[in-house]
């Protein structure tokens, strides 16, 4: 099995370039996991897809204003794409410039001066040496890191809309986009239905857009991302199981978080607290230990995210659903519509 088994034609006009005026105005395509049956609807139908006692699990990461523009001390323009904050004095980032900066080179962004401390592959470690703090620099000069398939510059509105309403832990450079459909009204409707809410933290990295190499999927490796699954959520999952409810992941980042925690050597397939790095690549044929249903957006062709979704349902059912969605005018990718698989 290779990435070309997960190819499909995605017209440019199917890719959502703007968010809808209202978060919960998104459409919802429901895919039955057992027989592939499809139901067209709206995200506001989600309470009808769930039952009292089900547990919705959200990713509470917060997207950083991770795209920064500055110049080298030598004068050349640079674009810095933050990957993660290492500590108060250092960041890890990708750099776009006419000539790659060498160790010791200075980079100025606003009133902050950074120095190239190290490089490993495409990632640079940049250290603060003068001026405003790294946190102040990001807040004052950072831009929303919209995905590369959104062909426009970010706006002030993206600061709020490319962020879930429950975001609270800084660290992501891409949004957990399945969560973007929820507003207070929808969350209230779900709570009134008797659905419980839980949270994981997975700081989405820029590697989420990384293209897979040619060759067998078994030989591929994904980028690592920081994840935290705490004891409270583990207790919520156990209680959900005890009452016969389902664990419903809101997005592929939640799936990776839960399944990574259950795949730790000491876990033996049972959800246990976990804090660390995950590079889990879920492919068709892999088991699911925790997740019973998922809400997810429509993903890019040949992407690891599409492969994860295809592992949960089936490649044939998912690709058929995508063709149905294209024909039906659904909006694809980060600012697009949603699919519920259960």
Secondary-structure blueprint of this entry?
Blueprint: E1 27-31, E2 38-42, H1 46-49, E3 55-59, E4 61-63, E5 67-72, E6 77-87, E7 90-97, E8 106-109, E9 112-120, E10 123-131, H2 134-141, H3 158-161, E11 169-172, H4 184-193, E12 196-203, E13 225-229, H5 231-242, E14 247-250, H6 252-262, E15 274-278, E16 293-297, H7 304-312, H8 315-327, E17 338-341
Parallel strand pairs: 1-17, 3-12, 3-14, 4-11, 14-16
Antiparallel strand pairs: 1-2, 5-6, 5-8, 6-7, 7-10, 8-9, 9-10, 12-13, 13-15, 16-17
Description of the structure:
The protein has eight helices and 17 strands. It has helices at 46-49, 134-141, 158-161, 184-193, 231-242, 252-262, 304-312, 315-327; strands at 27-31, 38-42, 55-59, 61-63, 67-72, 77-87, 90-97, 106-109, 112-120, 123-131, 169-172, 196-203, 225-229, 247-250, 274-278, 293-297, 338-341. The strands form three sheets. Strands 2-1-17-16-14-3-12-13-15 form a nine-stranded mixed β-sheet. Strands 5-6-7-10-9-8 form a six-stranded antiparallel β-barrel. A hairpin with a 2-residue loop joins strand 9 and strand 10. Helix 7 crosses helix 8 (315-327). 41% of the residues are buried. The model has no long low-confidence stretch (mean pLDDT 95).
Main features:
single chain, alpha/beta, nine-stranded mixed sheet, 21% helix
TL;DR?
By secondary structure, this protein is α/β, with parallel strands linked by helices. It contains 8 helices and 17 strands. The protein has helices at about 45-50, 135-140, 160, 185-195, 230-240, 250-260, 305-310, 315-325, and strands at about 25-30, 40, 55-60, 60-65, 65-70, 75-85, 90-95, 105-110, 110-120, 125-130, 170, 195-205, 225-230, 245-250, 275-280, 295, 340.
């Amino acid at each position: 099995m290779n990435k070309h088994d997960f190819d499909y034609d995605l017209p440019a006009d199917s890719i959502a370039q703007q968010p809808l005026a209202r978060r919960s105005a998104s459409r919802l395509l429901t895919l039955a996991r057992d027989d592939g049956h499809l139901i067209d609807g709206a995200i506001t139908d989600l309470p009808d897809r769930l039952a009292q006692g089900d547990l919705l699990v959200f990713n509470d990461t917060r997207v950083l204003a991770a795209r920064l523009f500055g110049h080298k001390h030598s004068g050349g323009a640079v674009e810095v794409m933050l990957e993660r904050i290492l500590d108060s004095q250092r960041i890890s980032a990708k750099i776009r410039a006419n000539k790659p900066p060498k160790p010791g080179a200075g980079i100025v962004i606003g009133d902050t001066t950074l120095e190239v401390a190290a490089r490993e592959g495409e990632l640079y470690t940049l250290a603060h040496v003068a001026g405003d703090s790294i946190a102040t620099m990001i807040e004052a000069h950072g831009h929303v890191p919209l995905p590369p398939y959104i062909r426009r510059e970010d706006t002030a509105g993206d600061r709020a809309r490319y962020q879930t309403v429950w975001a609270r832990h800084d660290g992501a450079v891409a949004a957990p986009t399945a969560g973007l459909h929820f507003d207070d009204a929808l969350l209230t409707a779900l709570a009134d239905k008797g659905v419980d809410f839980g949270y994981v933290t997975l700081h989405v990295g820029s590697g989420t857009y990384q293209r897979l190499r040619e060759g067998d999927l078994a030989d591929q490796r994904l980028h690592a991302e920081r994840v935290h699954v705490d004891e409270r959520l583990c207790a919520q999952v156990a209680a959900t199981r005890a009452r016969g409810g389902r664990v419903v992941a809101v997005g592929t980042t939640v799936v990776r978080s839960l399944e990574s925690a259950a795949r730790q050597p000491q876990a033996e397939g049972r959800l246990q607290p976990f804090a660390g790095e995950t590079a889990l690549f879920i492919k068709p044929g892999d088991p699911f230990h925790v997740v019973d249903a998922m809400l997810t957006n429509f993903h890019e062709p040949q992407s690891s995210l599409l492969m994860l979704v295809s592992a949960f349902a089936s490649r044939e059912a998912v690709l058929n659903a995508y063709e149905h969605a294209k024909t039906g005018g659904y909006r694809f990718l980060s600012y697009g519509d949603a699919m519920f698989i259960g």
